[in-house]
Amino acid sequence: MVEGNWTKVNEFSLMSFSSLPTEIQSLLFLTFLFIYLVTLLGNSLIILVTLADPMLHSPMYFFLRNLSFLEIGFNLVIVPKMLGTLIAQDTTISFLGCATQMYFLFFFGVSECFLLATMAYDRYVAICSPLHYPVIMNPRTRAKLAAVSWFPGIPMATVQTTWLFSFPFCGINKVNHFFCDSPPVLRLICADTALFEIYAIIGTILVVMIPCLLILCSYTRIAAAILKIPSAKGKHKAFSTCSSHLLVVSLFYVSLSLTYFRPKSNNSPESKKVLSLCYTVVTPMLNPIIYSLRNSEVKNALGRTFHKAMGVRTAFCRHFEV
Known about the structure:
Strands 2-1-3 form a three-stranded mixed β-sheet. The chain contains eleven helices and three strands, in the order βααβααααβααααα. The chain has helices at residues 22-52, 59-87, 95-128, 133-136, 139-150, 153-164, 182-186, 194-227, 232-260, 269-293, 296-321, and strands spanning 11-14, 92-94, 174-175. The protein is mainly α and 322 residues long. It has a single domain (11-296), classed as Rhodopsin 7-helix transmembrane proteins (Rhopdopsin 7-helix transmembrane proteins).
């Protein structure tokens, strides 16, 4: 960035999908509203069912509940404002609002990377040390692992957000995105940001690569353990316990890598918006669907919870009928 004349910026304007015709924006509004509601409902159900059903009080579902909290947070930070820009053309966001949105995006994103690594370690212990699994992953240990997963997002988000928003901004305040992401906001700064960009690149690589390497290490050992199982049925059962997590990890990391690690020549603002939708909007909706459709324990627990709820409702109605 180059030093130049600048004025105090009190608010930003999110360009979102303003280049599209009104009819397309209306269609996008309905689509994203549906995804938003499904995401909130699906992840809320995962949280409620894993809390209510004693059969799902294992470490795996404890970490899944944490993941659902993160996905709900992602959606609450991004989607409501995006829906406002689509239906009401309310593109303005305050300086503080933009900084707050960016902070929580960093926080939830970093936390999810480390939580997915923790969930991979949980699957590794469950498959490679099944007899010691309840002892190793006791309530105290799983609480510590969850805390370690959530914590890195705090310093990363604090440093990157406060540093970025301490720079002077030029008069142009149009953010070419549907949320306050770091790269489009960085383009509005009229000061030398070379040091910050180096920090941001190194920080992003570390945040993505460290959990990714931990996940690869866990699944390498899992694969080695599965290959040693003599029966095909045993191999299938072992693989099915981690297939949902593996699919979720693949969706998250592929969309994240394509968004932030593509060559700039292939990285137009419009294509980046589409890719950003994958890990910020679509993936949080798919996660509860993947875990419920591919997991018989969750499906059975949903059925039991539904029947219990219907039983309570019937008893309640009969009480008032009498």
